[in-house]
Design brief:
homodimer; 507 residues; alpha/beta; 4-stranded mixed β-sheet; disordered N terminus
């Protein structure tokens, strides 16, 4: 087994890994897990249709959105929009079942839909945590670190956007610096801003500088990610984002965030159907804005603690919902965003890992195409963990291997090895082992599998401590991907000019 | 949501939970995950047939076993046993697809096979670890604690046997005390000893005292659990255990333990097929000993660290093998033991939990019927963790909920609630929520879902710390299940008499 040799090589590369020539995204070869049967799925679809037809959705704060619905023939009363049965589903038909989000490095472009899976880091936490400094508000310096780490972690295929909220920069100017960080310090695909229409427009404008106007006119290079205001309320953050991104032919992700018992009924079947109805209506709206524009159906369900009423994560009900929404999305033929490495834990402890793993296992087998929050999430999404990011990302590599299936060619069955190794012998040094051991198993970076004695000699470091050392070492090794200097300058000019046009706003 | 009320109740019951009137085992209502298609499964079965027919298995140290094979028509050369294609599978047909292991409390009897899942604690670690005292050799006092905790934890359906190795009692006398602990301090089903034939016989003898000779003659009340000596070697520990337990109509579990690259080829397909061949041959042997005797097909595959050659757990290759062996076992029609909360981590940290969760998620969806090592496993099985036991067991309750499926009756779709709660409203106080919130979601005991501030005020306790407090509190609340005093005395007499017949042996 050449233990010494393989250990030495591992030591040399530890902490020095920059973005590897790994696949830009996962192409699954294994089946989906089908949790519900046909009868169960039809019940959920009927409930979604009933909600859209009988209860309807509120579209507030955006009269243009209501005009679009009216022109399409919807039943619009005040701000309530109802559609006859089947109309929402029918409108969704122009949305592509699969599309490419192009990265500035073409080798990192990702497919959304079909058998693909794309992992992106956590999105939105105002707080940040690391082992040394504990928990504090996120800063732009933290976000820069997180963009760099995400770039270096091979199982994160996508850079996301708000890996933490950079609270030290004015609210109305943050998006410029955030976008610049992603565009300059990574060459993985990323998301755009959504909180105000002008910020969405800035995002598309900067994408045009980075990718070229002609390319952006014909291709998806950026996406907006929004939540509905469940239950059944779609506000202008959603419709204006759609009217910006979709109108420009860019991608939209709409994810109802439903804490069961609060923003939806406390029963899982009802919450899944409601989320599906809300997302399907937004997809339909996006297709009215621009038929054929890329759309990702989002889903985010959490359960509730009986003790405190607080949201809980990684529990069996949201785990089953990941499987079920996957089935519904495939029947609708729209790419899916769901799941993630979710937890209510405040630190990267056992609770965090159990909850994240069950959430991610179902996310992966259930068939999510785009997985936001796949790494770094803590505390119900209120905090980004540096160590959690590192530990989650290592497990994402394991899902990448799992989804790629099990080889079953002649080499995999190793018949020659059984002639070389007699019963009761061992395979450690046999030719088949030597030829295969370097690729046979997933090479986890953060799992300590050495003996108790070795682990003890090295200071009894737990996973969190090892992850702390790892991300610090990684940052010292970071090298930025190349960028055309003229493009870089044009991006900086755009940011400087636009910032100059506005006063600082802190809320 | 009556937060105060529900929190108060939770506080009152925290740490005071004795064995609850929960189901004695899980009855799944959701499908299995079918990882491989028909073609892939046939390839694996062909490989297993090829191994049995062409390579053969060694049956060593037990001439009686070879006689049994010879009489059955096997090709026996020296100690090598080969069967013509199809013979092993054909012999397995008399093994029941489903059987009951009876507990001394009939309400705790478990079904093995069909849609059932039975969780049992870790088996065999010589070391024990807790947060206060660290790692040391296991003792009989530790085992007593672990039997009591297993009895009290509602998601552990089965008491196992060697929850830790009681290293402070002579090797040849341990099994008496171990069996007595399980028989006296729990009323859940348990396993018997296997290390020598006389110890297996003692186990069956004590079971006859506990359950009555007539009952044991007709029913399975105890099972032996053994490993083959992979690759392809079956020693007398296995055959003598089968010749004791199976002959008495009791259950046998044979689990090949294959560290890929050592006891089997480094490729997963070959290791799965080898494990299947070994277990199937042992099942066939058990049916030659006594047709119709209950048998559980075992499977234990681990992958290997590229860094050190050490076994790794919870990695994608053994995770996929849990799914695949489930398919193979169902096609053979024999109950399956596989998986568990496995990890190489030395402590109950994030590594331990990630690895355990992925291992268990696949164990659950893959359809294992009997899950040894479902709680408490650390360090590749070298150490039992008190905290790990508590944390794992809490997650087992989540799998119990997941496997029970999602309700989709009218109540689950909550249409009335949408008339009570308008779009943009909230469901917190509505009639449907009040009627359902106590049962809607899994009530995890060990997950902290409270706010950062609440968690911080209470001392920033991580999962391991909370688990330490929990098991200590539980032990102060333990109450032994009732036992007939005459039975108890007869058990004690048997133990005393048999111990008297032998000198202490320490190896």
């Amino acid at each position: 087994m050449e233990r010494t040799k393989s250990r030495r090589r591992s030591r040399e590369t530890r902490g020095t890994r920059t973005a590897q020539p790994t696949p830009a995204y996962i192409t699954r070869t294994i089946p989906y897990y089908e949790f519900l049967n046909e009868e169960g799925l039809v019940k959920l679809e009927d409930q979604a249709d009933w909600l859209i037809q009988e209860i309807g959705l509120e579209f507030r704060e955006d009269p243009i959105a209501l005009d679009i619905w009216r022109k399409a023939g919807a039943d619009v009363k005040d701000t309530r929009v109802r559609l006859p049965k089947g109309m929402a589903r029918s409108l969704c038909k122009t949305a592509p079942a699969k599309f490419t989000q192009h990265a500035r490095n073409p080798a990192r472009s990702v497919e959304m839909g079909g058998g693909s899976t794309v992992f992106a880091p956590v999105y939105g936490p105002p707080f940040i945590r690391c082992l040394e400094k504990g928990r504090r508000y996120g800063s732009m310096a933290d976000l820069e670190n997180l963009v760099k780490l995400t770039y270096m972690l091979p199982a994160l295929h996508h850079s996301g956007l708000v890996i933490c909220e950079p609270c030290d920069v004015p609210v109305n100017k943050r998006h410029f610096d955030m976008l610049y960080l992603h565009m300059r310090y990574s060459d993985k695909p990323h998301l755009g801003a959504i909180t105000e229409m002008s910020r969405a427009e800035d995002s598309v404008a900067m994408a045009r500088i980075l990718h070229g106007e002609d390319f952006v006119a014909e291709n998806c290079v950026i996406m907006g990610n929004v939540n509905t205001n469940s239950p059944l309320l779609v506000d202008k953050v959603v419709t204006e984002a759609i009217r910006t991104y979709s109108a420009a032919g860019q991608g939209m992700i709409v994810a109802p965030f439903i804490l069961g018992g609060a923003m939806g009924p406390v029963t899982t079947a009802a919450s899944i159907a409601q989320a599906f109805a809300e997302a399907m209506m937004c997809c339909a709206f996006s297709q009215l804005v621009k038929p054929g524009s890329p759309f990702i159906l989002g889903n985010f369900l959490s359960s509730m603690s009986l003790k405190s009423g607080a949201p809980t994560f990684g529990m069996p009900e949201p785990v089953s919902s990941n499987y079920i929404i996957g089935q519904l999305a495939r029947r609708l033929g729209i790419p899916l965003r769901c799941g993630g490495s979710l937890t209510a834990s405040k630190v990267a402890d056992a609770q965090a890992a159990y909850e994240s793993a069950d959430s991610m296992h179902s996310t992966a087998l259930g068939g999510a195409h785009f997985v936001l929050h796949a790494a770094g999430w803590l505390e119900g999404g209120l905090s980004t963990g540096y160590e959690k990011l590192i530990l989650d990302a290592d497990r994402l590599g394991a899902y990448q291997k799992l989804l790629s299936g099990m080889p079953d060619d002649d080499n995999a069955f190793a018949r020659d090895a059984y002639h070389e190794v007699e019963p009761s012998g061992h395979f450690l040094g046999c030719a088949h082992t030597m030829a295969n051991y370097e690729t046979a198993y997933y090479d986890a970076q953060m799992s300590d599998s050495e003996s108790f004695e070795q682990w003890s000699e090295r200071g009894e470091k737990d996973a969190q401590t090892r992850a702390f050392e790892r991300w610090n070492a990684m940052l010292t090794q970071y090298e930025a991907p190349p960028i055309d200097p003229a493009t870089d300058e044009a991006l900086r000019d755009y940011v400087a000019r636009r910032k100059n046009e506005m006063k600082d706003a802190w809320y």
